[in-house]
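Standup notes
- DV: blocked on the single-chain target, sequence here:
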Amino acid sequence: MAEITQRDGTWTFDGDTVRIVPGGKAHPVRLALGEIAVPVRAVAGVSFEPDRKGGRLRLRLRGGACPVLRAADGRLNDAADPYALSVEKDRTGVAEYFVDEVRNALLIEQVPDGPVDRFLLPGPALPVSGGGGDGTASFDGESVRLVWNWKAEESKTAGGPTTFPLSRIAAVRWMPSIGLENGYLRFEPVEGPLSAPPKYDPYALDLWGVSKKEHTAVLVAAAVLMRLPGARAALDAPAPAPAVPAPAAGDHDALRRRLRELGELHRSGVLTDDEFSTAKQAVLRSM
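- DV (later): unblocked, structure below
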């Protein structure tokens, strides 16, 4: 078992699953998303990025595995990214050990690092809500509801809250506020997107970037995205067969035990860095 606890949260790895629990002062996106269990088959890689203050532990998921990352499309900053953890200087050794444990499991399980054709994580729990700016959005699995605040334009507030079923949504897009440009959470109806900017579009929230909580709109986008017809078909599809036959369960357990033993010998100083690297590679070649 590998475990690291920091102010942003706690990561544990038991050989099969990376479990991520956000800390009490984590970004609102992380807190709203809650605990995440990431199976090894969804992981493309893991790294520790050192800096003068300590560094950052980063889990890289296979493309398409996580609906939140799919909805964010690379626009989540590190503070909001649930798969990045700030590490203090006195815990860098633990972070490096965590990286070694996950990498060893990826090698043993022969997990490919390419994209997947179905979501491997469940996404935000329902009902989910988020947003800010000129209103908030909520989704219960069947309908989206947009509730406007006093800052919304009359073109939105005149008709009261906007509610529409999932069947009327063709696409959903999220863009955070960047610099002086407002962001948005936009639902495109099946009859085609409106030409009006998000500020006047009754199917969109205008996000101003004045609060971190506005980023929670990405969770609404993710929950809707994974339930659109195309995504649902992918979710219901059977998992693809592994490209390379995996070792037997007994071999897995023996390899994991041996790698952990080697890691303990290395940390205690019995094995040098070179000896540990050579021994680890020998175990992995025995697969």
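- Follow-up: The first helix runs from residue 28 to 33.
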